[in-house]
Amino acid sequence: MSSSERRSVPVESPADAATSTFLSFSTAQIPVSHRLEHWESYNAKVLMGLDIRTLDDSPLRAEEVTLHCPTLRFARVKGSPQVIERSQRFITTNPTDDVVMFFILGGEAFFYHSTGMILLKPGQAILCDLDRPFLRGFSYGVSELVLTVPRTEYVRLSRGKPLKEPVIFDFATAAGTPGKDFAASSLASLINSALARKSGNLEQAENEAFSLVEQMLRGSVGADSHSAYQRALREVDHRFADPALDRSQVAAAAGISERQLTRLFAAQGESFADHLLARRLQAAEALLSSEPYTSIADITRRCGFTSPSHFARAFKARTGVLPSELQRASRA
Prior knowledge:
Elements: H1 3-8, H2 14-19, E1 22-26, H3 35-46, E2 51-54, E3 62-68, E4 73-79, E5 82-86, H4 88-93, E6 98-106, E7 109-113, E8 116-120, E9 124-129, E10 134-138, E11 142-150, H5 151-157, E12 167-170, H6 182-197, H7 202-218, H8 220-239, H9 247-254, H10 258-267, H11 272-290, H12 296-302, H13 308-319, H14 323-331
Antiparallel strand pairs: 1-3, 2-5, 3-4, 4-11, 5-10, 6-9, 6-11, 7-8, 7-10, 9-12
Helix pairs in contact: 6-7, 8-9, 11-13, 11-14
């Protein structure tokens, strides 16, 4: 790279980053062939070390604003489709001793970790350990807020509870209103407001953030498990008619791993497969009663069954009668 190209790159030196409070970065003026290396370098200096790859041949587009409080760091990130990874080998040479919270503002993000894959939608946030391997991807581009917390502070706020698996929070709804996790909603608003101001009383903002993180962690085990279970139930309710619906899809929609989904249903005394079957049979029973002249084959299809014989056997096991028998009784 020529000296003129180096001068055009808007990346602060490590010394500048260490002494600055508000930092900004954009790939707009960087030669296309050097954007990725500068994007990685900048993040390593001001936020966290990341192994970044683009998803296609399009030039990388990325921008980031970062606010350094005395202990915490806030950031807003936007960019084109990309994959971000911290593998075990990468972590060994680039440890952070931090935990991080990503607030998804737009698009969708997939998150692979040691026990499965999570699909994150706008309005969901994920809390994870930066020194445990993960891979994140943004098929439609990244738009998110970021909060980093030193591990020592996390241990204090969680009262010694380790962060073994990622935790999901609903900080906003699809309409953009505050989500179920009030503390997470308030934290996202605080970070956004602090970044918009670019300065102000950073110690006060940090103390408020500490308080909100503590509130989130206090209810994360029970409350988050409950909200994840409710998300799973809603996904089944919305998609039970799809014969291809399976455990992995529901787990991704609920923002948890398949293993976690299995545990949540087991805690209710049933399996995921049993619940899905019961929901389909419940819908079929309602249709057979309300639409007595609709064909059995049509009801079979509309309730997510691929085989009329399997539907008939499962229905009789549940109700004691065949679908055709209930239908005849409804006509009478």
